Amino acid sequence: MCGISGYFSTQDKFKIDLNYTNQLMGHRGPDNSGVYTDKHFNIGLSHTRLSIIDTSQRSNQPFVYDDLIITFNGEIYNFLEIKIKYFSDDNFLTTSDTEIILKLYKKFGIDKTLELMNGMFAFCLYDINNERMFVCRDRVGKKPLYYYLDQDKFVFASEAKCLNQVCNFEINQNVIEDNVVERFSQNISPFKKINFLKNGKYLKIDLNKFHFEKITYFKFENLIDSKLYNELNKKSIDEIIVDFDNIFKKSIDLRLIADVEIGTINSGGLDSSIVSKTILQKKELKMFHIDVKGMSEKKYAKLLSEKLNVRLYSKVLDSNGFEKSIDDVIRHYEYPLVHPNSYGIYLLSKLANDNKIKVLLSGDGADEVFGGYDFYLKKYRQMKFSFFYKLYYKIKNNKSGLKNLKTKKSKSQTSIYNNLSHITNIFERSFQSYLINSLNEYLQPLNLRADKLGMAHSVEFRAPFLDINLIKFAINLPLRYKINLWSGKILLKKYSENKIPKKIIYRNKVGFPVPLIKKAIIDSKLSIQENYVRYSKSVLKKFTTYKKNQIIN
User: Fold this and answer.
1) Which of 94, 111, 123, 508 keeps 20 to 30 A from 525, CA to CA?
2) Inter-axis angle of helices 298-308 and 270-280, to 10 degrees?
């Protein structure tokens, strides 16, 4: 996990101070920093390093291999498998995953490279001989990448603040309005003129022509597999559990590859608890918990730590600390703080850093891929009742053509729905398309929060539930194993029953609660929802009044 930045311009006089951008992102990579420049094409690449795999200096970046240079942020979890399968006879300069990316590109080109890699990443690869450059993000969107582009210059970085040398931080009001209404915007960058490269995309740059092509190499609907669905649809819950166990443990194994000590988040909830339990079968670990004053879940976190006989590191979160830290949280997040629990992630990474932990495994993504949120349950019930109402109406009026009975879908769901033609039950097909489509919406702010507020204190967050193979399994899992009228995450709960206490598995879902700032925002006469709206408007207003020096310093 690191911070990357760079530039390319047709104007020889244009330069970016890359040592300065490295300083701005020093929290992302406190172990080393480096700069590469190429005068022929007026290219500069920089890197700040958080050393996790091959911590020696030989793996520092920007990394040069023959005629290729890369600055890379992230982890390629399956790099050892790739090395054995494709490069068993090759000599390597390092034992890092960075070198594997360049080897793959040299052998297969960019598209095959992206297809073969299972990981989280944002990188810029400069191909000197072919006079081109690639700027790429991973399929799930774990690692951020911002960029600025005009008629003669291109600048990119892991954090928007590093683009301050080419543009002002003028707020995009459309993003603010989206967040007031939906708590989400399709545009992850809240700044005008600063773009955010979305997941599953890369930029292909012809350096001679200064020509940029944005290419989509992955969509979540690409994971739809009728054969896999039909196979799983014939299996019992016990057989499904065996399949899931194999995939989940493999995902955990890949995320345990590191040359530093690893810890886990112990929220006291199901998702992080089953991650901790599975890891403990492999190695010792430390568990970290944020104890929210007035909304404490520590008793569940302690219940797990005692059952697993693992030490629990805990820190209290209260409204006073939130109020004092909110400016720093917004500065790191670089996005309206519409999720107040972002402060909890910020505090969690500090607790881990204080105890010399660079890597934390989390339960992030389980709710998204297995339908665990309460609003999924609410949507399920609404769609179910609407479906049966329409069915009753058609039968009562002797209408034919029940196969065309459909629930209302958004435009973005249409192509997904069409690709699910192998699902014969119309209701299931509709809800599955809704779940798959929601991955595009809910995973991106979740990933941004984990990256930015983890790296605020030099901690890398790894999410086993967001392994691409596990997501494929979940997408093709029949709906009855994910959600019904009474419960979400059906498979995950059943899987966990003989592994962690049932009090944790079947307790009411809380999420990550945070006591809001009482003096400035909370009104005891208002409902929780009204207070949340009050909070959202307050922090959005605070964000829009930020000045350039506040973003940077």
Assistant:
1) 508
2) 20
Instruction: Give percent of the chain with pLDDT exceeding 70.
Output: 87
Q: How far apart, in Å, are the Cα atoms of 358 and each of 155, 355, 454, 529?
A: 29, 9, 10, 36
Backbone angles phi, psi at 255, to 5 degrees: -85, 0
Q: How many CB atoms are closer than 10 A to CB 422?
A: 14
- 316 pairs with which residues across the strands? 291
Give the C-alpha separation, 105 to 98, whole Å: 11
Residue 215 CA to residue 213 CA, distance in Å, equals 6
Peptide bond into 62 cis (omega under 30): yes
Helix axes 374-396, 426-455, angle to 10 degrees: 160
pTM over 0.85: yes
Flag whether pLDDT at 279 surpasses 50. yes
pLDDT value for 189? 87
How distant, in Å, are the alpha carbons of 144, 215, 441 from that of 137? 8, 11, 17
On whether the CB atoms of residues 417 and 409 are closer than 8 A, the answer is: yes
What is the separation, in whole angstroms, between the first and last Cα of the chain? 22
Per-residue burial over 436-447, b if 16 or more Cβ lie within 10 Å, else e, is bbbbbebbbbbb
Are 433 and 408 in contact by the 8 Å Cβ rule? The answer is no
* Model confidence pLDDT, tens digit, residues 303-319: 999 999 999 999 998 87
**CA gap 217, 137 in Å, rounded:** 10
Q: Which tens digit of pLDDT belongs to each residue from 77-119?
A: 999 999 999 999 999 999 999 999 999 999 999 999 999 999 9
Among 6-15, 172-181, 185-194, 269-278, which is the least confidently predicted range? 172-181
Signed CA dihedral, 338, 340, 344, 347: sign only: positive
Facing residues of 292 across strands?
Answer: 317
Q: Which helix (H) or strand (E) holds 469?
A: helix 468-475
* Lowest-pLDDT range of 122-136, 189-203, 395-409: 395-409
What angle separates helix 342-354 from helix 426-455, to the nearest 10 degrees?
50
pLDDT: is 414 or 105 the higher one?
A: 105
Longest Cα pair distance anywhere in the chain, in angstroms? 77
Entry field: residues in the chain:
553
